[in-house]
């Protein structure tokens, strides 16, 4: 399934939607949109082989957690298309990127813009930290580091079933601080799971600030190679480079694409907050108004109309 | 007493070869969990995941997502203590059909604190969507494999290994507790290896004129509270629970909750580990040391009835002492 928009347009749309949402709600995962817009646009708009959404454009309300008493339970994976042998599967491992992922679903026509209005509203499935039942999500990844393991298991199973569809994990670089990430890579390499690949947003930021200040992780590419993966590196904001990296052959091994990104790409005004970028909440109405004007100008969109207090 | 060598090994292999969607996962304890023969004979159905339980649990969740039913083999403690987050997020919440086969429950290992699963029942039974089973003899080990695999969701099983006594001649059925005697003085509730302990005291208690109602549990969740309450209501003096586990959160707690919710006033003595860790030692030594053996049960019954039975260790049936090193065990653990 291909979208009418170019991947560049989708990326621009993601930034604009997350910007608008963050300004209006006086807070949001704005920096993640800066670093990951091209990556998510690339995945949904061209890299992944996804069928049409099986879910309503306007997300249904929260319908309960999985239990024996809830036989109608379903995840939000239907927004990524049907489960079958030929289509790819996508896990969004850093579930706090949900706002960015929802914006992407809207841009590629899989969710109505009204879906974002439900973000973090009580009773909504469009949760702040993407849950299994949130649009575009298939598993809980809110505790970082478990996504790649789950994907490796699914990929092993799909290979055994003869599926041609692959399994992709969108990851964040902070996850390399979790031991489970390395357990997952070594297991995927040991078992030759090569229908698995990951696209990692290497923005070098985490909740407490810059990763180098919080926990030094060293040469991640070398570490992944030593654990048995094929690694490709690229500029996360350079689509031809992303395409080339994702096309790297990786027979018998998982592929990890390290997409080196900038946490303020497209919204340079955010640098005034560096390194506190994980969750942007404006410190004053003055800052909010200034960011509204400056970022809107950078994005080439109109400032968000704000009700006067 | 008939002893059966490695009942799990044969039962798992017989089941798995009939069900290609069953996978055998191991975390570097393959022979210790009696699946070495299966690995050698059915390598295509076996996945070695190394000493990396966090990955193994999430990986198994992914296999479940693909429609497989992985059986995870390790010592029970390694299946929940380190990978608890993965247990919840990757297995319990999404109701994956993952079968967690926990070997060496409670103090059945001399491995000490790190190897002894003493709070596994408490942890597992509080998880929504989880089923918890415990095998008490060779017949239950043999039947727990196929029975666990019928569960529409995840299941944790306490498994006995090596030379296991055969106490029962009918298979384990989920939700069906065994009524081993129907006395009316005291209700005794046991599971796993503590059932054998209670049986050791059976004839001595009968000789002392104590009428015991003895229930053996193999299904710890779902817990049949109504039946427990009915049995408790039919005895005069009260209830003793004897478990290979901490009394907090385990069978003692389950019975207490059942009695309280039903408003049934019966005294309750909870035997097991009393808010303490254990240390390494033989099973008979540990069960004696921590008050989990047949003699501790007799003393608890005396407290409830208020009468001495005159029973001492010599009056109980002999303790079954396992060889520390044995051909049916991979290592002394």
From TrEMBL, chain A:
Give UniProt keywords alphabetically: Thiamine pyrophosphate
Show the InterPro entries listed in the entry: THDP-binding (IPR029061), Transketolase_N (IPR005474)
Q: Which residues form the Transketolase N-terminal domain?
A: 87-249
Q: Which cofactor does it need?
A: thiamine diphosphate
Q: Which Gene3D superfamilies match?
A: 3.40.50.970
Top-rank taxon, per record: Bacteria
The family assignment reads:
Belongs to the transketolase family.
Name of the protein in question: Transketolase
- What's the source species for this entry? Rhodobacter calidifons
């Amino acid at each position: 399934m291909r979208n009418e928009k170019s991947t560049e347009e989708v990326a621009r749309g993601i930034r604009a939607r997350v910007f608008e949402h963050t300004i209006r709600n006086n807070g949001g995962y704005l920096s993640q949109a800066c670093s990951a817009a091209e990556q998510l646009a690339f995945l949904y708009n061209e890299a992944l082989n996804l069928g049409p959404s099986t879910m309503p454009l306007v997300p249904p309300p929260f319908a309960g957690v999985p239990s024996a008493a809830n036989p109608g339970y379903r995840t939000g994976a239907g927004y990524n298309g049907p489960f079958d042998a030929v289509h790819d599967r996508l896990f969004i491992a850093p579930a706090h990127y949900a706002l960015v992922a929802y914006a992407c679903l809207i841009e590629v026509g899989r969710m109505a813009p009204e879906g974002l209005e439900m973000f973090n509203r009580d009773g909504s499935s469009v949760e702040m930290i993407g849950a299994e039942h949130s649009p575009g999500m298939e598993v809980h990844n809110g505790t970082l580091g478990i996504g790649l393991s789950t994907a490796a298991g699914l990929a092993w199973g799909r290979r055994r079933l003869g599926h041609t569809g692959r399994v992709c994990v969108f990851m964040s670089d902070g996850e390399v601080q979790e031991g489970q990430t390395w357990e997952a890579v070594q297991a995927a390499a040991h078992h030759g799971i090569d229908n698995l690949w990951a696209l990692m947003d290497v923005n070098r930021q985490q909740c407490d600030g810059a990763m180098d200040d919080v926990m030094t992780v060293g040469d991640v590419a070398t570490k992944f190679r030593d654990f048995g993966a094929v690694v490709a590196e690229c500029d996360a904001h350079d689509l031809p480079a992303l395409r080339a990296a994702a096309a790297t052959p990786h027979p018998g091994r998982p592929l990890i694409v390290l997409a080196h990104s900038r946490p303020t790409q497209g919204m340079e005004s955010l640098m005034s907050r560096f390194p506190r970028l994980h969750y942007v909440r404006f410190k004053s109405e003055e800052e909010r108004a200034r960011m509204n004007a400056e970022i809107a100008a950078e994005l080439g969109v109109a400032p968000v109309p704000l009700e006067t207090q | 007493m008939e002893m059966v060598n490695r009942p799990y090994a044969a039962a798992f292999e017989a089941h798995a070869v009939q069900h290609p969607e069953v996978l055998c996962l191991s975390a570097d304890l393959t022979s210790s969990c009696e699946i070495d023969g299966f690995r050698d004979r059915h390598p295509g159905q076996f996945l070695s995941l190394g000493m990396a339980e966090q990955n193994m649990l999430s990986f198994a969740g992914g296999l479940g997502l693909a429609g497989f039913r992985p059986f995870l083999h390790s010592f029970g403690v390694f299946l929940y203590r380190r990978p608890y987050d993965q247990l919840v997020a990757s297995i319990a919440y999404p109701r994956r059909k993952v079968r967690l086969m926990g070997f060496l429950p409670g103090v059945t290992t001399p491995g000490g604190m790190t190897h002894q699963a003493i709070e596994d029942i408490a942890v597992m039974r509080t998880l929504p969507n989880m089923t918890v089973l415990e095998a008490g003899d060779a017949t239950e080990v043999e039947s727990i494999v196929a029975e666990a695999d019928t569960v529409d969701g995840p299941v944790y099983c306490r498994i006995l290994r090596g030379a296991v006594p055969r106490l029962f001649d009918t298979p384990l059925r989920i939700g069906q507790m065994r009524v081993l005697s129907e006395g009316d003085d005291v209700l005794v509730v046991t599971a796993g290896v503590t059932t054998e302990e209670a049986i050791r005291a059976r004839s001595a208690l009968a000789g002392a004129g104590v009428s015991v109602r003895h229930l053996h549990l193999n299904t710890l969740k779902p817990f049949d509270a109504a039946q427990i309450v009915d049995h408790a209501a039919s005895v005069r003096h009260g209830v003793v629970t004897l478990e290979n586990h901490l009394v907090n959160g385990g069978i003692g707690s389950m019975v207490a909750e059942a009695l309280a919710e039903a408003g049934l006033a019966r005294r309750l003595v909870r035997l097991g580990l009393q808010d303490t860790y254990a240390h390494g030692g033989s099973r008979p030594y540990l069960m004696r040391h921590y008050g989990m053996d047949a003699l501790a049960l007799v003393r608890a019954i005396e407290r409830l009835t208020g009468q001495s039975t005159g029973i001492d260790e010599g009056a109980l049936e002999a303790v079954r002492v396992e060889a520390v090193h044995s051909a049916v065990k991979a290592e002394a653990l």
